[in-house]
Amino acid sequence: MSTVPHSKKRVCYYYDSDIGNYYYGQGHPMKPHRIRMTHNLLLNYGLYRKMEIYRPHKATQDEMTKFHSDEYIRFLRSIRPDNMNEYSKQMQRFNVGEDCPVFDGLYEFCQLSAGGSVASAVKLNKQAAEICINWGGGLHHAKKSEASGFCYVNDIVLGILELLKYHQRVLYIDIDVHHGDGVEEAFFTTDRVMTASFHKYGEYFPGTGDLRDIGAGKGKYYAVNVPLRDGMDDESYESIFVPIMTKVMETFQPSAVILQCGADSLTGDRLGCFNLTVKGHGKCVEFVKKYNLPFMVLGGGGYTIRNVSRCWTYETSVALGVEIANELPYNDYFEYFGPDFKLHISPSNMTNLNTTDYLDKVKSRLFENLRMLPHAPGVQVQPIPEDGIKMDIDDQDGAVEDDDNKDERLPQSIKDKRIMGDNEFSDSEDEGPQGDGRKNRESFKNPRKKQKTDGKAEIDGVKEEKNSSEEKTSETSNQTEKKEENGTATKKEESNEPLTCET
Amino acid sequence: MANNNSTHNKMYSESTYRVGDYVYFETSSSSPYQIRRIEELNKTPSGNVEAKVMCFYRRRDLPTPLVQLADKHQMATAEDSDSPVAMKLKKMWLKTPVSEEQAAQAVLDPAIDKVFSEAEENTSALEEEQRNNANSNGTDKSELSNKQKHQMKHRELFLSRQVETLPATHIRGKCSVTLLNEEESLLSYLNKDDTFFYCLVFDPTQKTLLADKGEIRVGSRYQTELQHLLKDDETDGRKIEELETLIWTPHHSLTDRKIDQFLVVSRSVGTFARALDCSSSVKQPSLHMSAAAASRDITLFHAMDTLHKHNYSIETAMCSLVPSSGPVLCRDEMEEWSASEANLFEEALDKYGKDFNDIRNDFLPWKTLKNIVEYYYMWKTTDRYVQQKRVKAVEAESKLKQVYIPNYTKPSPALITNNSKNNLLNGTANGNNDILALTGNKPCESCSSSSSANWYTWGPSHLTCRLCQTCWNYWKKYGGLKTAASRLAENDVEALKKRPVETLEDEEKVTQAHRQSSNKCTYVNCGKEFKLKAHLARHYAQAHGIAIRSNSPRPIMKTRSAFYLQTTVTTKLSRKLCRHVIKSKKAARQPSYAVSLTAVKNEFAIAITKVNITDIKSFLKYKKKDRGSVTLIANRLGNPATTGCEWLKLTPKDMMPKPEKVAFPKPPKGPDGSLIYERIPNKATPEPEKFVIPNTIGCTIITPSNIGMPQSLPNLPASVTATPISAPLPPSGKRRAYELNGLDPAVAPPPTKRPNKDPMPSFRPSPEQYAAMIEAAQAAGQPLPRTHMNGKPKIAQMSRSGSGRKQVISWMDAPDDYYFRPTENNKRSRRNLSVTELRRLARRPWRKTSVNNNFSNNTSTPEGPQVVILD
Ligand SMILES: [Zn+2]
Ligand SMILES: [Zn+2]
Ligand SMILES: [Zn+2]
User: Fold this and answer.
1) Per the confidence metrics, is the pTM higher than 0.80?
2) What distance in Å separates residue B868's CA from the closest CA in chain A?
3) Chain B partners within 8 Å of A465 (Cβ)
4) ipTM score
5) A394 contacts in B (CB within 8 Å)?
6) What are the two backbone dihedrals, phi and then psi, of residue B173, each rounded to the nearest 5 degrees?
7) Do B680 and B868 meet the contact criterion of CB atoms below 8 Å apart?
8) A141 among known catalytic residues
């Protein structure tokens, strides 16, 4: 027990024992209690003891205003159920009152949720963890100056902003049944964050997430929206998630990933309309985990709470790489899981309105969009300086220059796309999505490994844990080279100089 | 056979309609089906099934200007979405509904018209391409394209947020409606039966069209300021220690087994601590219950925290569980609450629902909101809740998940019967026979075919048109004729279309009255106002979960509207002045008694002249009659004794006849006047050794009498029976040891946050003693692992009730007041009684029976069964 096996990840888990006692109000479907139910399951499954457990700090106003407007946060801080009447104007303005009610401890609740995600991001930045889990986070609808869809403070945006300090490109994936509009909007015009959301679209909250919404300005093509219809089952979900995310990983080449695991996409959700099982949902975690990138796993929606806690417990076990029994262990909330008291759930017999034809059409359109991306924008493969933990070097001025260069770069990349594209597509057709995924997983392990080992050198705490570090460091230089080859390989013989346009 | 079965199953599933299905509804035999989405299926008291459905409108149901605009929209969607044309049209709809007037304007707008013609061109280009791809079936290419264009219009629907209720028996089959995705070709809908699409939302009351699409906004007010990548020499100034506190780490030297063992130990300590704690021992009268309470997650979390705090040293962690102040006791809300608090909570829940703030204010002010919320979620695991839920489940039975409706086989009234035998059946009411005479052998109005198994009358009767079977089916499903070629098609559709629109208008007139109250939410304590009715509807749906008919601001659930009578000044005055004409008391008793208004008027005219203005003012002033408190009245109503009859007065308690036998005698009183309760042994073992409790600090502290612990320990029976000398019940029913021994003199009602470590000062076992006790407890076999789940030992008594449901015995379900613990003797004597005797006995416990001696004697002796009063 003293050392975690090498295949296992260093997992940090954020939880505050108060979180379950925040109460949105009578009849409100959002129940923070589900996070506590998950926590108790984790304890009794014996998963608790396999992770680092942290109580997050309460995010400060300063931290929150990194994204949110000052007045909005000030408002959240001062509003209480007993002074609501004095704030009716602001409540309307900040969309607080209906979906997002004022409840006791509202601000604290936001602080804990955001605190967990920010701490997770810092943890990943310091390379003190490979996977960070915060089931209290993932509140993806919150806007800069507006609450929305049960979300007040967008912990995801705050987490991404923190990651951006050390990561040139961050990928955000959203498997909540609702569109991740808050995160998409926050990063709509940047190419450093790609948002990919899989959601029900059409006559459904929040109404955004059309296939044609692809980002704007510099961020054009950096928003990926997968509009889906009622009844998505495990098979259909995988059939679209895997190929699209494989392609995204390949073209965007993020150095850190955030996965919002909204559990309202599960079958039988009180507000959802998909038909996923816990296993199918968990496959997304499994998929991302395989890329070995710094990985943040967040909660989100989920309104049939027994299934939410089942799902997040299972996903924690996936993150840990531990198998757990289907029989649920006894715990304080055992009776919630009747009548079967099992971990896994079965899909319902609801009709799947997502025909293969429809999904194929969506997929090919998204592929087309992804082909518009300059291959691995701003990618710089160079050894990390000894004293820095950072992966890539760039600065704001550089970014501005980047912008100017973009126009020149774009045609180039389109050219690449034309040359490369055919290849790639025939590839994926031969091997099928599975094979495609495997291939890419391979090529993505490398940058991460390099980063990990390099970073480890400076962080004392990590050292003892990785015994084979020497071995790996020697490997690293090879991989760095290999990676460089990969980078240029995209350009094929056409140009051999490495990515001139980048700096 | 198997084949038959599978086809049967298929039929069955095809005719089974579930919530969420899109279906055809037949509301009139001559008009096309209506397309609806099932939102709810409800069983009515009469046994019928009603479907609450969401309405989709066909193009033919829209006002003309909107139809034209919708046409243009469709053209634009059919074409590349990034073109300026599409963008322009998209802008028009986005978020702002386009009303009928605007639509009419837009149709005339030359700019849009230009857009329209461009779109038209593009569409035909697109179709050209499609035509080339599709295998032509020999017909003229352009004709095919036109035909497709024509039929496409039948496949477009307009979503409305209107909800209506229809009898489920009017369902005529399933269809599918999906939001059109630009990537899909419209042809894919045409090629598949019963498939429809929609792009726009139609509001039948506002007569508007709207593309219901959210928008990602662009601008500095919406996007985040971007964090730049740190340079080499830059630091983010983040100190990870400030952001988190480590609670547990997997990097330690303990094995899984060691941790498990430690968990068992801490549960054992918890069990023991409960045995020592008087308030716990009252609540959990058996070791089983104490063990179960000690196995709740709070104890485990505390154990893990303890391990972490003691650097994963089992030894020091263990010692910390038994500090000098006594074994550590962790209690969660579930255990913290007394039975009376639990009862209060349930009562409050009944009254207020889950409004925990109100519950706290009015019922449990000494609890914090967090206490209540935590308790609530735990309370839900108890059988009390489960029972409530069962009651609710019965209530909810009227809500169905699916309904089976066999295929409708009755012939349509529009069917033209050539068979004269059927004339009688069909009747002449619909005039089909006249039409038959007129139509003769007219070809099908749609396809011009002249042979068909069945013919149906179609269109206004004076035109005497008929449709063949296929065209009739098409008409019913898609609301149009297959080809646009029919000489009648347009007029006819118009003529038929008129009807629904007219009814709509009628309905609207009715709602005009409601509308003047603006679009204000009628929900209690909400009262939000909205510009548009549609917004109000959405508010209802989102904020209160209520679906409304969009033509009425009232929630659909409310069937009867409340009204109140507003009395005018004259009316009020006349009640005073014309009292003898109105006879209000008589009228109140006899609602049918007619008051002559003219008489009142005459009387009033005379009377009003006789009173001065101050009198009038005083008449109008509302004077509250003092009738005393409602409670008093209610009491009086139920208690005729107050009328004064001597014989009705209650007999004073001391005058009451004494019963021969006291079935449940009160326990003796202690020196301080409190009742002394006896404890029951856990098992029907021979009378266990008793502990004498020295009342050291004037409170109840349970200490083993034979303090020579190590020696006496092996004798410690599985059922530790301790008889407290005095257990003064605190008034609130809440009592902690620390409240008494002065460690916590300020007994503030809101209990301290968990974990609650109650010290037990007077009993201080040495670590060795402690270990021995644990061992003894284990040897006794009781609290330790019974159910192994995932290899983790867990103490929980699982039983299965009749329904096979797993149950865990909880102190929550322990009886609230008395229970009787029979001895073997009792049990034996019971067996000698007949069922009737037993029943009689149960009703009249004082009665003598053949075995009664045995019975009554036992109740009074300490060795016999014991009566325990809980809380
Ligand atoms: Zn959601
Ligand atoms: Zn025909
Ligand atoms: Zn309201």
Assistant:
1) no
2) 28
3) 251
4) 0.76
5) 228-229
6) 130, 170
7) yes
8) yes
